Amino acid sequence: MLTDDRDIAFKRRLAGTLNQLEGNWKYKEAAALVKPILAEYEASSWYLLDSDMMAELAIISEKHIYISGPRKLSAIETKDYLVTFLMQPNLISKDVIPYLQITDMVLLFQKQPEPLFRITLEKFKTLVNRLTYEEKKLIIQLTRKYPVFVRACLGLVLAEINQPLLSAKVLQTLSPNILNRYKQKVYNSFC
């Protein structure tokens, strides 16, 4: 992974700022410190994952900050915090960030153990079900550049909420072997 001097300076500044936080802190407090640093670095290319959405989906983020952007950077460990950088394969704009965050959440919850995975998947299904038809189509378009688990999960969730045409659009991007591998994990969680 190539890291230029700007990336190194950004990570050092971020770590220094987070090291100033002491005691009990909330994600939003840390985010308030991180946002200006992101804005100076590459404002339109990086975004923080939404703490409210993580809480809604039961994704534990205590003392952990997730930042998504156009390239993968190594994680930063400070004295009290961990900052993880997710690589965002899509072009980032303010209009699509809320939808990119939804798909980023799947990257986070895919690694959760049972029964937490099952709980989060049910909550994710509810979140997707609240989206409009057009928003669901946009999510499908965005997931085409994501890893196969994200596409499989979204396609199977769309099938579960009775959206067969949208589900088929996502699932057709997967080979039958890949689909079968993830189908068991996702469908078992719905039972």
Notes on the protein architecture:
The structure is a single chain. With 191 residues, the protein is α+β, with helices and mostly antiparallel strands. It contains 9 helices and 4 strands. A 4-stranded mixed β-sheet has the order 1-2-4-3, sandwiched between helices. β3 (76-77) and β4 (82-87) form a beta hairpin. The radius of gyration is 17 Å and the shape is globular. The mean pLDDT is 87.
Notable features of this structure?
191 residues; 2 domains; 4 strands; 59% helix
Total number of distinct structural domains: 2
Share of residues in strands: 5-15%
Contiguous runs where pLDDT drops below 50 for at least 5 residues? none
Could you give the count of β-strands? 4
Quickly describe the structure.
The protein is of the alpha+beta class and 191 residues long.
Write the layout of secondary structure elements.
Layout (H helix, E strand, L loop, with lengths): L4 H15 L7 H16 L4 E2 L2 H6 L7 E6 L6 E2 L4 E6 L9 H13 L6 H15 L2 H11 L4 H13 L3 H8 L4 H15 L1
Parallel strand pairs: 2-4
Antiparallel strand pairs: 1-2, 3-4
